[in-house]
Amino acid sequence: MKKVSKEVLKDAANRLMFDMSDEQYNILLDEFDVITKQLELMGEIEGIDKEDVMTFPFNCEVDFLREDEAATALTQDEVLSNAGSIKDGQIKLPKVIG
Amino acid sequence: MSNYLDLSIKEIHSALLKGETTPLELTKEAIKRAKANKDNAFECLCEEKALLKAEELSKVKVPEDKIMFGIPYVAKDNFSTKGIETTGGSDILKGYIPLFNATVINLLEENGAILIGKATLDELAMGGTGTTGHKGITFNPYDKTHTRLIGGSSCGSAVAVSDAIVPFALGSDTGDSVRKPASNAGLVGYKPTWGQISRFGLFPFAPSLDHVAYFTRSVEDAALMFNVLSKHDENDSTSSFKTRLDDYSKLDGNLKGKKFVVLKEVYDSITDKVIKDKFDLLLNKIKEGGSTVDFVEFGKKLLMAIYPSYIVISSAEATSNNANLDGIKFGPFYKGNTYQDVMMQARTKGFSPLIKRRFVIGSYSLMSENQEEVFKRAQKVRHLIVDRAKELYKKYDSIICPASPSIAPLVKGASNQLNDTYLIADNWLAIGNFGGFPSITIPLGFEDDMPFGVNITSDAFKDFEVFNEAFAMENILGYRDLSVLNFKDKEGK
Predict the structure, then answer these.
(1) A78 neighbourhood in chain B, CB within 8 Å
(2) CATH architecture assigned to B4-256+431-491
(3) CA distances (Å), A34 to each of B7, B73, B266, B363, B448, in order?
């Protein structure tokens, strides 16, 4: 397990495209004292790492293909109605390629 | 008007059929009560729309086969509602107006139910206290001094039903977010088998654990509601194709021959004598009714690992499910030099500190160095826990245990998050989410005028059996139609 430090937590936050205040990183660092102990409880189960992972409660089996039906889900105006920055019928963003 | 809103859905429907009240009268009264409530239960009220619909419905004959016709209800603010601002309790979705209804909202609409408001919740349903939404703390209506929580994340929905504003409310349950507040609020809280109720339009938190769930004031109402909501939905890829029963509300309450199992470690880790005594009393009664009850060890190490595996899986899934909250497609837009700047600002300013810390736990779990030892290990623990529960279901019909180790926690209370009471008795309900098992909490008793509940959890697709067992216990306990308005009359029973 990667050793927890303020830098590691900042990296974890930045990977998700947000930042926190220094105070919040310090609170989280303290919380990780408890979290780490809780995470260690998982490792105390005998033979745990030989088990298979479970990603969903059970498989949802589908044994047929549905018909393709053309439909318009949303109009352009509807799609743009919740965007904060629009121009000429499109969402406007800063340049991606220089 | 008389207190129709304190009654069950079935009783209100009967009053509507007899013409004793109308959808308009009910809706006006519900809105009046919602406005009078001081517990911070609402994100918004849909007064105009609700009254308009109620007026229309009041002009037509009440259909006998539409049990929810003309009855007001409340939905947690993480269900998409067309044309009604839906924020999930987060500033990052301030101003977001969905373009479609969640499937469950549509089903209730088709059946004539009237949405009067959107309820408060922990931010994006990620929390169990009802304190982290952008509207602040939601309080327990049983405690007028506002020193106790109702719990979350479906806090506002729980208030709306327990304070007799509406007879039912939609919530969501990823760890215990309906069944735990139900315990704190003296309500029936039902989480169905995973896939039995469509999640289309429910803001995803952790889809492998998320369930649409709901509060009612009687078990029969919960079963009636299941009849309406449990339909296959092609918009939800995880919606079950299994055939549903014609009617889940034909309950006989017969306990004869039923086999219940109490998880010994859950029972042993509860120190509250009042809760244990009342639970013991219930066990004696159900044995008198012809059931057997065994105390069995689940495996302490497995139970101690429920919370860490839950927090890892849910936080990790939440990181990707909330990646779309970027301030671009929706959410407040902040100018920046790059699109990364735009996103960083929106997400830094839009999420509250607590939810960011949860996201960081998820992000940390998914780092390549941690995947085996944290994320995958949590998924392996989940597998073992579900296997153990299924092993028990080969021999027993249902697990029964107190839903919570205590009455509703204090607002300023602090708990030791490493002891057995917290890790086991306060978190065992997540077994239901791990396995997608049907699970119901019903009121069990009172301590210091505060309610507490008992939970019954069974194997997947045994929804009817769970309703029937809970119905029998509700008859024994006598807490049907409980609310803050009438609990004093029922408390001593």
Answers:
(1) 99
(2) Alpha-Beta Complex (3.90)
(3) 45, 40, 21, 17, 32
